[in-house]
Design a protein that fits this description.
The chain contains 18 helices and 22 strands. The strands form six sheets. An eight-stranded antiparallel beta sheet has the order 13-12-9-10-11-14-21-19, sandwiched between helices. A five-stranded parallel beta sheet has the order 3-2-1-4-5. A three-stranded antiparallel beta sheet has the order 7-6-8, with helices on one face. The structure holds adenosine-5'-diphosphate.
Length: about 500
């Protein structure tokens, strides 16, 4: 592997640039006009413009991206997540162009691309799936008959689904026809396919997923679970590893199930098997994501394994040196910092980031695609950055996340920072008493609670202090108390540093 082209943007593009650099491999990014000054473009060894901001005219131009790889002499392509990462045709085109695809084989993407096909494969390998059908529904009458059999509520799901699209909960027979129609329409619009099937709707489950790595030499290992139950509208907001609901025995069983699914699909590289974990401890396979995931850092923090580096190393043929016996060490939590006004219906917020103060100190990691001066637009996903912490225990990780969120200051746009702070303060979250409906249930009371530390006030004080300092710089005398300072300033015991500070009115006598 001589040079890697990164077909993505934002934090994940920068994440891959960093992995390449640590392995001594030059990296090339492609970018749209909206990202011309973005951190990932600045940090990569080379950058090539693709086109205007809309992804259909930039990050989704697979053929153009392959052509760019050829032009710049890149011999491998990393797709990140989203965009082209799970497009079978793109994985195939990269391979046919004689380039290394840093991801699973196109055939494995295809095998997992349809939820129905994935369910069928899992069942054939003794992996439990949510009770339901493995055929697309013909009509509402069939849906009603199946719902009678499993009992309400049921969930209609698009076979091609992703991002929670084409999904409808049906609580009684009267709602079936309308829900089926809506799920079909949404799926057709989003994925060009209207196949919909039925699953039993599980009440109060957790979303627990297993990270797998598979090399080209038939070794496939589980790196343990991530708990991703804190979701809003089926979108994850906070993830952690390990899960408060998983013990060593369950971890082993879920890990073995994930490895069976991955092997059955002929999987290679990094992938994730998503499961629902019911309150009674029963787990059900949902689907496999055939790419690196947003929340991969929490697994990295508790295993010490660099997943993105391993994506590159697997793609160039290296053997995995570890087994599924790895136990998590300590606790990691990730908050997705998004440009949303969380106290105002999660309204998207756009504009320029005028000021950014990053958290630091022990156990804090900041994976970000933005910096001071970045313009946040509506062209792409609202996720700006991921704040990740590690600590020996869950309670200490929560305390550390509170501290890090407290240090984080983003001015110019609204972000989810304060919302995360509220979650960290919540006693149910602190007890780990969460499931996938928890956030929606809890949202009103979360938002009504007072902001844990008075950030608004401290931000105002900081701004006032800065303004005052500027004033003093411009006119030391106007800041008051400067009369008669000339004498003092020449006192010999003052260090040059202190003298300058006094001259500028920054220190008192
Ligand atoms: P997508 O690919 O659209 O994200 P998933 O199948 O991964 O769809 O489901 C998304 C989310 O919907 C899950 O994380 C979970 O919160 C919820 N969900 C999915 N299937 C069920 C089910 N059978 N019962 C209850 N909730 C479910």
């Amino acid at each position: 592997m001589k040079k890697v082209l990164i077909a993505n943007r934002g934090e994940i593009a920068l994440r891959v640039v960093r992995a390449c650099r640590e392995l001594g491999i030059p990296s090339v990014v492609v970018y749209s006009d909206a990202d011309a000054r973005a951190p990932h473009v600045r940090e990569a060894d080379e950058a090539v413009r693709l086109g205007p901001p809309p992804s259909s005219e930039s990050y989704l131009l697979g053929d153009r991206i392959i052509a760019v790889a050829r032009e710049v002499g890149a011999d491998a392509i990393h797709p990140g997540y989203g965009f082209l990462s799970e497009r079978e045709w793109f994985a195939r085109a990269v391979r046919e162009a004689g380039l290394i695809w840093i991801g699973p084989p196109a055939e494995a993407i295809a095998a997992m691309g349809s939820k129905i096909a994935a369910r069928t494969l899992a069942l054939a390998h003794d992996v439990p799936v949510v009770p339901g059908t493995t055929e697309p529904l013909r009509d509402a009458a069939e849906a009603l008959a199946i719902a009678e059999r499993f009992g309400y509520p049921v969930l209609l799901k698009a076979a091609a689904g992703g991002g929670g699209k084409g999904m409808r909960v049906v609580r009684d027979a009267a709602a079936m026809a309308g829900a089926l129609e809506a799920a079909r329409r949404e799926s057709k619009n989003a994925f060009g396919d209207d196949a919909v099937y039925v699953e039993k709707y599980i009440e109060g489950p957790r979303h627990v997923e297993i990270q797998v790595l598979a090399d080209q030499h038939r070794r496939c290992v589980s790196l343990g679970e991530r708990e991703c139950s804190v979701q809003r509208r089926h979108q994850k907001m906070i993830e952690e590893a390990p899960s408060p609901a998983v013990n060593a025995e369950l971890r082993k069983a879920m890990g073995a199930a994930a490895v069976r699914v991955a092997k059955a699909a002929g999987y290679q590289n990094a992938g994730t098997c998503e499961f629902l974990l019911a309150p009674n401890g029963q787990f059900y396979f949902l689907e496999m994501n055939t790419r690196i995931q947003v929340e991969h850092p929490v697994t990295e923090m508790v295993t010490g394994i660099d997943l993105v580096q391993w994506q590159l190393r697997i793609a160039r043929g290296e053997r995995l040196p570890f087994t599924s016996a790895i136990e998590p060490r300590g606790w990691a939590i990730e908050c997705r910092i998004t440009s949303e006004d969380t106290s105002n219906g999660f309204l998207p917020s756009t504009g320029r980031i005028d000021y950014l103060r990053l958290p630091g100190g022990p156990g804090v990691r900041w994976d970000s695609g933005v910096g001071t001066g970045s313009e946040v637009t509506l062209f792409y996903d609202p996720m700006l950055a991921k704040l990740i912490v590690w600590a020996p225990t869950r309670a200490e990780a929560i305390a550390r996340m509170r501290r890090a969120l407290d240090e984080l200051t983003i001015q110019g746009i609204e972000t989810s920072r304060e919302f995360h702070l509220r979650v960290m303060e919540d006693d149910e979250f602190q007890r780990g008493a969460i499931d996938i409906q928890w956030l929606e249930r809890r949202l009103d009371s979360l938002l009504a609670a007072p902001v844990p530390r008075d950030q608004v006030e401290s931000a105002a004080i900081a701004a006032a202090l800065l303004a005052d300092r500027d004033r003093r710089r411009r006119s030391p005398r106007a800041a008051g108390g400067a009369a008669g300072k000339a004498d003092e300033l020449s006192r010999p015991e003052l260090s040059p540093w202190a003298r300058l500070a006094r001259q500028q009115g920054l220190r008192d006598a």
